[in-house]
Structure formats: C-alpha cells, structure tokens
Amino acid sequence: MCTGKCALCVGTSLYPLAVISVICNIMLFFPGWDVKYAQNGQITEEVKYMGGLIGGGIMVLIPAFHIHLTGKQGCCANRCGMFLSILFAAVGVAGALYSFVVAMMGLINGPYCKYLLVIWGTPFKERNESYLKDRGTWETCTEPKNVVEFNVGLFSTLLVTSAVQLVLCAVQMINGLFGCLCGTCKQEKGPL
Question: What is this structure's pTM?
C-alpha cells in the first residue's frame, strides 16, 4: 500500500472514532439520563476535563481532515503534505493520549454519586481494592440510578476509542515519514 492510500485509510478511520469520543463525553454529563445532576454540578470530576470532547474529539478530528486530504489522489499528495501530516498526527497523538488518561482516571476514581443516603462524593476513590473487580460494591452509589454502570461503560468506550486513535495517529506519523522521505506513489492513468 502506498503512503497516500495509507493516509486516506487512517484519516477515514479517525472520523467515526472522533464522533464516538464526542458522543461518549457528552453523554457522561447526564448520569441517569437526567440534566439535574449536571445543573447541580453533581458529575464525575473527570467528565469536566472533557477528554472525549477536546482530546479524542477536536484534537483528533482536525488532524483527521488533513490526513484524509493528504491521502486523496491529486490533493496534497506530495512530500510537503506528508511532512505536515506528521505534525498533524502528532497533535492527534497528544489528543488521544489526553483522552486516554482522563478516561483511565475516570475508571480508577469511580463515579461521583450519593452514598450512605446523604453524602455526595466519590466513594471508590480512596479504596485499596478496585471497585471494578467487585460488582457488589457498585450498590454503594444510590443516586443517580446505575451511575457506576453508566460511567464504566462510557469511560471504557472512551479508553478503547482513544487507544485506537493513538495507534492510528502513530501509524500515520511513521507513514508520513516514509511519504516525506520516499515520496507518495501516484498511479498513472492509461489512455482513455
């Protein structure tokens, strides 16, 4: 596969991943599918960092556009375009890393919820053992309803999505280096 086609494939693959990251991050603002928790500031701290919206979304979507255009035949399919794709892919790596770290911390610290009937906080944050291994402890959170499952599902999706974004952007950095040094391949069109 030539470097132009590889860039086209990477750029195209990043679009749905960026959309998934944005959607997951927006959904995390509404635990229990209710807006009152966001209005009262009763949401998990890591949600406020907007790792999926800023990191896995914007910081990956902008490079995806350039990488995609670099791979299109006749459009930026040159050494300069490939060099720029390395820089844009580096921005994508940074964004994916940010999203990955925020999602990881969201999973480690657990959700912000009501526990012991009156206290709002993160009950799993100071524990020695991970709440992820023991589903019985998930009932500690009484409000919002099913907030632990909600956070685990969405933060896990963000974690996997950002890991794939990270790999794709790293591949594009290597691909861009080859394209910059060796040039992109262009297929000649035969006589019509």
Answer: 0.87
